[in-house]
């Protein structure tokens, strides 16, 4: 390949300035705006163009051509001209407004039907008609906003893959639900270590499954094919193409949502308490007294379980910005299990201070003959509850895989994502492909708008 020629400032005397096209410096005539090849950056070829195409100007002074070059820079050609800068600002405004529209999960038509008329009215009233003309140039039609969102989504996905590539490990979270058109959708989030050594969480995929979650084999196959395809793309970026598909399921650790496991572990009521909870009891003397004292315990224990459930919801500790969610949630669970041990030891000596509703009845002489029976039922339930929590929350041996450090603790992100999906793809927009909209709406990665402007212009 021939070496690339460079532009010399002396070429202006032949009426040529430099312009960059496809990462290559080329000469451009300031008279006719013709762009020649890089190979034409020779005195003889530039002079020949001037004398053959513009013979009457061949003796013109350099100052004349300098003036022509300034006029040329005001045109759209070239990335250094004022016209380019003007168009770049208009495009940037279009991208940023489109991003605000999708972040608010509003219809794309709101840009042309609401936002732009509001902008024009306010600008004309405050800044005058000249400023209004500039605002009028901002394209915000339905199709334009959709195109801007698509480009931003692609750029965000491109950045995300690079970030995952640079992360030493990452974790995946998947969940499925149906949208407003009763179509089964798979939503996936990825957690990874960013360049600033903070753990970040981003939307990875929104994939239509084409079936309900009842078709387990089809569902698993769809997930596997997509993840295998995505991982193949990841390998192509990080390694070589011949490494694609060499390993599957190589020591992958999986975990279920902590909130779901906590709910399962809580289903440990003994028969007496379960009967009280589920059956309709006739309000009669001794039967009602037993029902009442059992119900008092259920009120207290469910209050404790509900508090734990609320603590496990959300994105974690705001001070740590979600960077250690699984450890925060595990600490809360371990603390709750320690409470169970404390409750057992206290109930064994008839101390019901942790169960205020039950304590108010136990201290009443009216229920004195039921205290021993209630004590046995409460102890039986608390011990069973402790065993179930130990079964659903086993310890990981020495954290042998580093990826466990960033495992997702709950499916909160997926649930939040599905809420956003229902807002974007509603009854009025039930045929919308919401994948790109949802990515831009939920992502914390900012699209590289200046780069997108250059690609368009």
TrEMBL record:
This protein's name: DUF4371 domain-containing protein
